[in-house]
Specification:
The protein has helices at 23-31, 51-61, 75-83, 104-112, 150-158, 170-175, 188-197, 227-242, 249-272, 276-298, 304-325; strands spanning 10-16, 38-45, 65-70, 90-93, 99-100, 120-127, 130-132, 140-144, 166-169, 202-213. It is an alpha/beta fold and 327 residues long. The protein is globular, with a radius of gyration of 20 Å. The termini are far apart.
């Protein structure tokens, strides 16, 4: 068992907002890991359901759980609040409606304890039980960021610029005062990852998958567009500006394509579920999409499905807008 005087090696940060139905499964999947030297920092971000009771019940189950409450400010605010309270050498971020398979932390630590002294590791993951590979040819690999800016693209674009498939160094976060941008509500995780990776010289990657990312009805693409969703474009622009210092044509091109992909996602949502917020931004978003359209469909990393959807949107969206304006 974990000694009471032993500082945790990993701090697991879980923001909670109205997750009464899923938080127990999430936390239990962490408590059941074969690695015990961790703390769980739960931040209740102003939930209006019974999440607080569920979290307090979990605290009684294990002393490694810290429970914090704050007024609702969004997931970035909750994570920033937690970063002020963590004690671990490494930080792992988990969403309250997801869960882990056993062996996650021990595997990630095996990746990060390499001769190249990586300050971050990235691993494969599951989306609704389908494994998403990250393209590492060997069981493990180390990528030296200083060799080429291409490594940034490999880590975040190929592996996914997500929080929950990575282990971060708490010292790097603290020393460089890396925090989540609280004005960004979508792709805030990508912005954090790119900011973090600017301050490290080596990262590791592995093909095993443990994290189960669950796409629920609340995160489905049929949701209507709102102002919070549009901040995804702001995040992409900030990432592009942030990475200009690397002077990599490949990286800049792929990031610009990522911006166009986000425009495509927004336009698709507007078509599926039109509302006032979506229609008010439709012209602006379509202009940005049209500007990056050719580069997107000719980029070797763009999937066949995204190309097909992009061609459809390029042809159909202006016709759809004109038909609505006539009503």
């Amino acid at each position: 068992m974990l000694s009471s005087d032993l500082s945790p090696l990993i701090s697991v940060v879980i923001p909670v907002f109205n997750n009464e139905k899923t938080i127990e499964k999430c936390v239990n999947s962490i408590l059941n890991q074969d690695f015990e030297n961790f703390e769980i920092v739960i931040v209740n971000d102003g939930s209006t359901d019974s999440s607080s009771n569920a979290c307090l019940n979990l605290c009684e189950k294990d002393k490694r759980i810290k429970y914090l409450e704050k007024e609702n400010g969004g997931v970035s605010s909750a994570r920033n609040f937690a970063l002020e309270k963590i004690c671990g050498k490494y930080v792992y971020f988990c969403d309250a409606d997801d869960y882990l398979d056993n062996g996650c932390f021990s595997y990630m630590l095996s990746l990060i304890n390499k001769e190249c002294e990586p300050k971050m590791c990235a691993v494969a993951y599951f989306v609704n039980n389908k494994k998403i590979d990250i393209g590492v040819s060997n069981e493990t690999s180390c990528i030296n960021q200083l060799d080429s800016a291409r490594a940034i693209a490999l880590i975040n674009l190929r592996f996914g610029a997500f929080l929950w498939n990575k282990l971060f160094s708490a010292d790097i976060i603290k020393e460089n005062n890396i925090r989540f941008d609280e004005s960004i509500h979508v792709r805030e995780d990508a912005l954090f990852c790119y900011e973090y990776i600017k301050h490290i010289s080596c990262a590791a990657a592995g093909e095993k998958a443990f994290y189960h990312y669950i796409i629920s009805e609340n995160t489905a693409t049929s949701q209507a567009i709102n102002e919070r969703r549009l901040t995804a474009l702001d995040a992409c622009k900030k990432i592009i500006d942030m990475c200009e210092c690397f002077e990599s044509t490949e990286l800049n091109s792929r990031l610009e394509c990522e911006y166009t992909i986000n425009c495509l996602r927004i336009l698709t949502r507007i078509l599926r579920n039109p509302n006032q917020a979506g229609l008010s931004c439709a012209d602006r978003v379509f202009k940005d999409f049209k500007r990056g359209f050719f580069k997107l469909i000719t980029n070797k990393y763009t999937s066949a499905r995204d190309i097909a959807v992009a061609v459809f949107i390029r042809i159909a969206f202006p016709l759809w807008l004109r038909s609505r304006s006539k009503k």
